[in-house]
Amino acid sequence: MPDLPPSEARRAAAMTVLTVISGAVDAVSFLTLGKVFCALVTGNVLFLSFALAGEGDVPVERAATAVAAFAAGAALGALTLAGLAARARPWFVAGLAGEGLLLVASGAVALGRRGLAEAVDHTDYVVIGGVALAMGLRASTALRMHVPGMPTLLSQTALAQLVNDLLNRPLTADGRAPRHRLLARSRWAATVLGIFAGGVLGTWLLVPLGPGRALIVIGAAVLTFAAACHVALLRREDMGART
C-alpha cells in the first residue's frame, strides 16, 4: 500500500478486515443456509425476483427474510450509530460489537438446532434473519466510516473502477501514477481480494466446523477486532491528553 498518513492507513486496513469477514459470512450463508446471501443484497434481490416469477427454485420467503432483515439492520445502524456519534461515543466500535454479537447469536442458534450438520434447515429463518441483520448493521457502519472504494460488502464496482483506472493509466512526469491514484487502486484491489479471500476462508471453516460453529468463530473474530479498535482508540485518546 502507498505511504499514507496513519489515520488513512488505519481506516483502509480496518475496511480490508471487514471485507474479508463479509466474504466469509456469505460463503457460510450461501453454502449452508439455502443459497441465500446475507451480505450481498443484490443477489437476494435477484433471488427474490426469480422466486416471484416462479423460476430458479428459490423460495420467496428465504430471500424476502434476508432482504427485510438486512434493511432492518441498516436502519438500526443508521439510528444507533448517528446517536452515538452525536454524543461523541465510539460508534465504530459499537457497530462492530453489535455485528459480532448478532453473528455469534445466529451461530449459537444454528448449532443448537442442527448441531454439526453440514447445512442449516432451509426454513430456519431465525438464522438467516440474524446474519442478515448483522450485515445490515455492518452496511451502516461502513457508510459512516466513508472510505472511498471500500464498502466492505460488494466488489463489482471496485473491480470496474480498478480496471478502468489501470487502462487509463494517468502518469506523472517521472512515469509513475499519482499518489492519489495509487491510494485508490490499493483500496479497490483490497476490496476485490478481500471478498475473495473471505470466501475461501469461510468455505474452509465450514469443512471442520459446520455452519453454527463457523458463524460463532467469525462473530468472535469481529468482537476481537472491535476490542482491538477500542484499545487503540483509548491509547490515542491517552496520548492526546498527555500532549
UniProtKB/TrEMBL annotation:
Keyword Transport: no
Protein name: YoaK family protein
Family matches, as Pfam families: DUF1275 (PF06912)
Spans through the membrane: 12-31, 36-54, 66-84, 91-113, 125-143, 188-207, 213-234
Record keywords: Membrane, Transmembrane, Transmembrane helix
Domain of life: Bacteria
